[in-house]
Automatic annotation (TrEMBL):
Keywords: Cell outer membrane, Membrane. It comes from the Bacteria. Its main location: membrane. It is found in: Cell outer membrane. SUPFAM superfamilies: OmpA-like. Residues 121-235 form the OmpA-like domain. It holds the Pfam family OmpA. One of its GO terms (cellular component) is cell outer membrane. It comes from Actinoplanes italicus. The keyword Transcription does not apply. This is OmpA family protein.
Amino acid sequence: MSRRIALGLTVLFALAAVIAGQLGPNRQRIEADLTRRATAALVAAGQPDTRVTFIGRDGLVVTSAPLSARAHDVVAAVDGVRAVRTRVVVTQTIPDRTQPSVRRVTERVRAALAAGVADTRLRRELAAVPPLVFETGEAGLTAESRAALQRTAALLGQHPHARIRVEGHTDSRGGSQTNLALSRVRADAVRAALEELGVPTDRMTVTGYGEARPRVPNDTPAHRAENRRVELTAL
């Protein structure tokens, strides 16, 4: 007889464990669903700052005194809610720990957008500066290029946090390694000129591409002259 009782208890405990395992996730789903629908109902009732949480089907509403009665009725009317308790806070606004984080994120987004607008404007302004071109095989700056660099330095002064890439290029005449070295010398000459005009060196990155990135085909003297250049790109 005692063996039958022990066996019966074992079966009951096993069934209880199975039921508990099934009810756990189901309870979480119920709580999440009720929270979602009750929150939506509060928002629709003009109480977006009222908070509601659930343990099983029992709700807890946290709000200010003037809103508590209405909030209780709104949540109690949600289908599936069994009981509702109300907790009144002293202040008129509900404390929200997420607000400082939201403000910080908003400030970062605004700063990023402002920086993006400034970068776009600087790129457009740099593109309007006359081209920095060179004689064949030379790295010396022409009078026109020096005038263009004065304008560039003034633009960079208006964007004190902007950085630029100084890119040197050549035409296709000469060996590729010679052209690569020449393009770097041209870029260095432009960097040095900008530094003399007050642009800090750490705001400039210098690179040379040789003949690898022509702006136009190297098929005429005019096109080759256009390819012997230094370009300035906002980073």
